[in-house]
Amino acid sequence: MRTFIISLFIYLFFNSICFAEITVTHDFQQFLSDTNPITKVSFPLITEFSSDPYLENGVSISQVNGFHNQIIDSSQLDISDLTGNVLKVDGPEHINIKLNAPVFSIGFFIVDGYWTYPSCPESDSKFSILIRNHKTIVGTIDEIDPPVKSLFFIGITTNTIFDTIEIREIGALIDENSGEHCENDFIGKIYTSEIDKTTCFDSDNDGVVNQWDECPETPLGSIITSSGCPVLLGDMNQNGKLGVEDSIKILKTLSNTNDNYTCNNILFTSCKDILESNCSKGNGNYMVDPDGLGGLLSFEVFCDMTTDGGGWTKIEYKTDLELKNQFNDSVGDKSRYLPNNFETVLSFDEIKAIQNVSSEGKQLYVGECKNVIHYYYEDGKDYRHAFGYKFLDNTESFSQRQDYTDPSNPNLIIKVIEDGCKKNDDLLRSTSVMIKSVKVPLINVKSSDNGDSTDEFGSQLTKNPAWLR
To answer: Which of 54, 202, 210, 221 could disulfide-link 61, Cβ–Cβ 3.0 to 4.6 Å?
Structure first.
């Protein structure tokens, strides 16, 4: 991977004609005249989608946050000149548009801001757009500011190919009463232009355009030289062998590489990958692509770059587990999981991709209780009501016993560090459990002291996310 970065940088440095130049227009007629586009996506059918992408003409449209989405008749919006169907985005707009073939231009209509709750303040959102060709960042457009409740066109043209754009809303508000997002945004028809095989066309998508590509049919994902031909990873002499001279040249090349270019134009697999590549800007949000080319689109995560050496990726929950009687039935005490799994901000597929590039994980689970034993039962002097825990891959810990050690899962470590719920009374208490495993986050808990109407338990999940590294 690092050799590829070096080769790509050297290639772009000596052939600056192919640095991306991005032109943005909000004049639809001008965009039509300049690019002669085709209508690529028109949303012909009224439908709904959430975690699964919407597909049309080989274009994949997905929302990173996994909120509910609908395709609706635009006549519901009463917007001048808006016709046909549009994509309604529920919640903050984090949309990825993945094309089935590279293009030089894309255009689409957008409507900003319809308030769905009476107590929501009227707001004016802004948007940023990231343009990518596979994992390489072509460029970014910051703080696009469409007028509120009006039809607005965004046309993008570059001098180098791209196959993905990522639209991110800035400043989405939350209704204080309902806790729901205040507004919906809408995306109309999407237009692209056919490829014009100019100087910067790269037919095999290896990062070297055809004009200088000596191997124009390089297999996708190959490590390449600046001339576009596959090489042995680390073979700086390009002689088919690895030796001391190669190592020396790698070190010299890395010391002379423009770190800002590498950090700003390569999507890394995880927070740890960013940190180890010396591209950390401290704690904050970063874009990552854990499974690389051909898999999930890149998505945004929060990175803790300071705690315990840094490089931790945050796995957040959407909501807390409310403190209440969770079952409300007459079955009596019974060992059972909650009827619904916990919801996370990232999709399960995105979390699994992060797990696949991680070697450690941690999570503090704080169980709140009234009359519900979580681990030790002080009066009974036993562990017959100890909680069990389920993880994303459906691994289940032991329950109703003192020792959570599982020989079949030696890397799953569960330790109770504070146990207020052992009192089993009607005061609000808590039991804290530290879990260390790459299997985090928890997605469910199993209880057995749950048969009385006064048995209540919950957890402030949003305050205790999981972390992977």
So the answer is: 54
- Side chain identity, residue 381: K
Instruction: Give the phi and the psi of residue 324 in degrees, each rounded to 5.
Output: -170, 175
How far is the C-alpha of 275 from the C-alpha of 437, rounded, in Å?
Answer: 21
Separation between Cα atoms, residue 196 and residue 37, nearest integer Å: 12
Alpha-carbon distance 379 to 40, whole Å?
68
Distance of CA 356 to the CA centre of its chain: 14
Taking only the tens place, the pLDDT of each residue in 3-28 is 233 333 333 333 334 456 889 999 99
| 274-326: pLDDT as tens digits | 998 888 999 999 999 998 766 788 899 999 999 999 999 999 999 999 999 99
Could you list the beta-strand ranges (E) of 116-150.
Answer: 126-133, 136-144
3-state secondary structure of 422: helix
For every residue of 331-368, DSSP letters joined together read S-S--EE-SSPPPBSS-HHHHHHHHHT-S-EEEEEEEE
Q: Same CATH topology for 2-192 and 314-468? A: yes
Q: CB within 8 A of 282, min separation 6: which ones? A: 305, 306
User: Which amino acid makes up residue 303?
Assistant: C
Angle, CA of 202, 208 and 209, to the nearest 5°: 40
Distance, CA of 73 to CA of 63 (rounded, Å): 20
Half-sphere exposure of 192 (CA within 13 A, CB side): 22
User: Can you give the residue ranges of every domain in the chain?
Assistant: 2-192, 314-468
The closest of 332, 290, 349, 43 to 186, measured between CA atoms, is: 43
Considering the domain 314-468 in this protein, what is its CATH number? 2.60.120.1000
Distance, in Å, from the CA atom of 420 to the CA atom of 409, rounded to the nearest integer, reads: 28
Fold classification of 2-192 (topology level): Jelly Rolls (2.60.120)
What gap in Å lies between CA 335 and CA 332, rounded to an integer?
10
